[in-house]
Amino acid sequence: MKYLHLILSALFRRKTRTIFTLLSVLAAFLLFGLLDSVRSAFASAGHDIAGVDRLVTVSKISFTLSLPKSLLERIGSTPGVAAVSYANWFGGIYQDPKNFFANEAVAANFLDLYPEWQLSAAEREAFRNTRTGAVVGERLAEKYHWKLGDKIPLQATIFPQKGGSNTWTLDLVGIFHESDPKQRDQEDVLFFNWDYFDEARAFGTGNVGWYVSRVTDRTQAGRVAAAIDALSLNSDHETKTQTEQAFQASFVSQFGDIGMIVGSIMGAVFFTLILLTGNTMAQAVRERIPELAVLKTIGFSNRAVLLLVLTESVLLIVLGGAVGLVLAGIAVSALTAQLGGSLPLLPVGVAIWLRGLAFMVMIGLAVGSLPARRGMRLRIVDALAGR
Amino acid sequence: MNALVEVSHVSKVYERGKEKIEVLHHLDLQIPQGDFVALMGPSGSGKTTLLNLIGGLDSPTDGSISVGGERIDRLSESALARWRAAHVGFVFQFYNLLPVLSAWRNVELPLLLTRLSGAQRRRNAEIALELVGLRDRSSHKPGELSGGQQQRVAIARAIVSDPTLLVCDEPTGDLDRQAAAEVLSLLQRLNRDHGKTVIMVTHDPKAAEFASHTLHLDKGTLVEHVETPPA
After folding, report:
1. What is the ipTM of this complex?
2. Please, which residues 236-295 of chain A have a Cβ atom closer than 8 Å to chain B?
3. Is A6 in contact with B110 (Cβ distance < 8 A)?
4. Which of B58, B78, B110 lies nearest to residue A298, judging by beta carbons?
5. Phi, psi (rounded to 5 degrees) for A14
6. Which of A75, A318, B51, B69 has the lowest tally of Cβ within 10 angstroms?
7. Which residues of B touch A11 (CB under 8 A)?
8. Contact A299 B113 (CB under 8 A)
9. pLDDT per residue over B160-216, tens digit each?
10. Would you call A381 and B52 a contact, using CB atoms and an 8 Å cutoff?
11. Could you tell me if residue A247 is inside a domain?
12. What is the dihedral of CA A48, A50, A56, A60, to 10 degrees?
């Protein structure tokens, strides 16, 4: 700490240059914070889901392909299956395409498989008994100021009605609440009655998007999944059954290798940053060679000079990087509030900060190593003589 | 009087490409503790090289150098750095202050290598600045001081850790006559009143008159030893 004023005064010796360098570091780590938030959101998809005792059954070829509804009874009678339900992606738009939220047609008992979604008995009953009934999560209802009894018109993007209309008007009969505060993004969804959907849609009647089963013993989930898949083996609708966590993970992998994409972008950004700040540090140390020689003259060891320059370099990156990550945190909060769940983002938390700090230190050391080595190895008499 | 500095058969050879240049040639010299010695001679005579060797900034090609009984030519680089910090104060022609630090922060620099607390370092730096008559300028940066004042700050930095030896390379070379006289009087006071041994390289015979002895070098050897008559 007693060297801090020495390091800071060297760092801000040329204020304009340092400020521009700090801005470039800030921009790089702002980008890192945002991209790592997206990457973390994809990487952790499904990991926090409560229902480890739920299995999801989709088409083995692609989860976008439908399965026959006739499988329902057979899955339900598979040993180890306590309950089974089904659903279909609807993909409707509310008022404007930018108002994205998930909306699905689900069977009447679908919500029974998700005890973490808290819905009153009266609303649950209303959902069963209302043909055009819909249930939404609390966060989604708050976002669009919906209340019970409201009519919600959804514009179909996949499923027009038999009469040719694309407008599906739903009656809001229930608002559910996710019991885990950390999982409130689960509330950004609308469910509506399967029967209405299946009867009114222009095509695909009798097919379902996926099945959800609850197993009696979670330790037997693998065996039960294999038994379910065996039901349609060698048929034209072979299935793939996996835990809900695994399903979520494989779902997000459809977007591509987010980790690799983010890693490639950040690699390019950090490489550019190293070149840029490396040049700045080299120039800053070159200008101060006589001063470093004076420090060595009065007794600073080679190691002390090396550490001074390296600390200066790391401090430069940490100062800019920390501000960048703080701004990334603010930006992620603002984006999440603005866009809801349509853009997968995790808060810039401890894990992202730790990764960011590790990168800052590594980049700082990489940037400072050559100038620090030069400072360490300078010969006092040559440096003082300007050679 | 005991010799503080003993230089025995010292040679120094520099290599410039394929050419070897002998700057000092089998030089012998003894400087008693508490002496004020001026080193004079033409350019290239080896004055600064000798000063650098005595100050532990460079090592001889041949021969030995002892300061205060310690063979500094045998010390490793890190040990030599510690030795310099403890025993030698340096004053340069162009002051060599750190322009981004205030006067007292410049003076404090050698104390950063000690175990003194921040408050003790500040107090010692202020005392050193008081000694050179610049306490009221302690918060000024070098760019806000005159040349003579900067050199006095450099002297304060040289004495703040209470070294036995002050090595001064052309300390008045960049100063006008009045500022030079002030700096030389200060060095003389440090020698007489505080017992510092001072070795000063100079081209200026007037400056050499402030020393008690003047040694003349030419082509790497001592050619004359003149004792300055008391003023």
Report:
1. 0.91
2. 290-291, 294-295
3. no
4. B110
5. -115, 95
6. B69
7. none
8. yes
9. 999 999 999 999 988 888 889 999 999 999 999 999 999 999 999 999 999 998 999
10. yes
11. no
12. 10
Is the Cβ pair B57, A297 closer than 8 Å? yes
Measure the CA–CA gap between B152 and B132, rounded to whole angstroms.
6
**Taking CB atoms and an 8 Å cutoff, what residues of chain B touch A9?**
98, 100-101, 105
Work out how many domains chain A is built from and give that number. Answer: 2
What six digits make up the tokens of A185? 């993004």
pLDDT at position B48: 92
Asked whether residue B30 is domain-assigned, the answer is no
Is pLDDT above 80 for A337? no
Among partner residues B77, B86, B110, which is closest to A302 by beta-carbon distance?
B77
Q: Which residue of B21, B80, B100, B155 to mutate against A (max A Cβ within 10 Å)? A: B100
What range does the domain containing A367 cover?
A: 4-45+257-384
Residue B218 structural domain? 35-59+86-227
Find chain B residues with C-beta within 8 A of A12's C-beta. Answer: 100
CB contact under 8 A, B109 and A290: no
Residues 6+ apart with CB under 8 A from A207: A66, A67, A68, A69, A88
Instruction: Compare CB distances from B57 to A290, A300, A381 and report the shortest one's residue.
Output: A381
Residue with more model confidence, A349 or B229: A349
Question: Does residue B135 contact residue B126 with C-beta atoms inside 8 Å?
Answer: yes
Euclidean distance between CA atoms A109 and A111, whole angstroms = 6
Per CB-CB distance under 8 Å, the chain A contacts of B58 are 380-381
A contacts of B99 (beta carbons < 8 Å):
13
Residue A147 structure tokens: 């209340």
The domain total for chain B is 1
Burial class (CB in 10 A: 0-12, 13-18, 19+), A24: middle
Residue where a domain terminates, one of A207, A236, A265:
A236
Cβ-defined contact of A381 to B110 (cutoff 8 Å): no
Same domain assignment for residues A224 and A339: no
Given A236, A267, A289, the domain boundary residue is A236
Residue B155, domain member (yes or no): yes
Q: Is B78 in contact with A384 (Cβ distance < 8 A)?
A: no
**pLDDT over threshold 90, residue A320:** yes
Whether B183 and B132 have beta carbons less than 8 Å apart is answered as no
Can you tell me the mean pLDDT for B141-149? 93
Chain A CB contacts of B86 under 8 Å are 299
Q: In the prediction, which pLDDT does A181 show?
A: 80
Give the C-alpha separation, A373 to A165, whole Å: 73
Do A94 and A223 lie in one domain? The reply is yes
Residue B93 to residues A294, B147, B150, B215: CA-CA distances in angstroms?
A: 13, 10, 11, 19
Q: Per residue in B95-132, pLDDT tens?
A: 899 999 999 999 999 999 999 999 999 999 999 999 99
CA distance A97 to chain B (A): 58
CATH number where B187 lies: 3.40.50.300
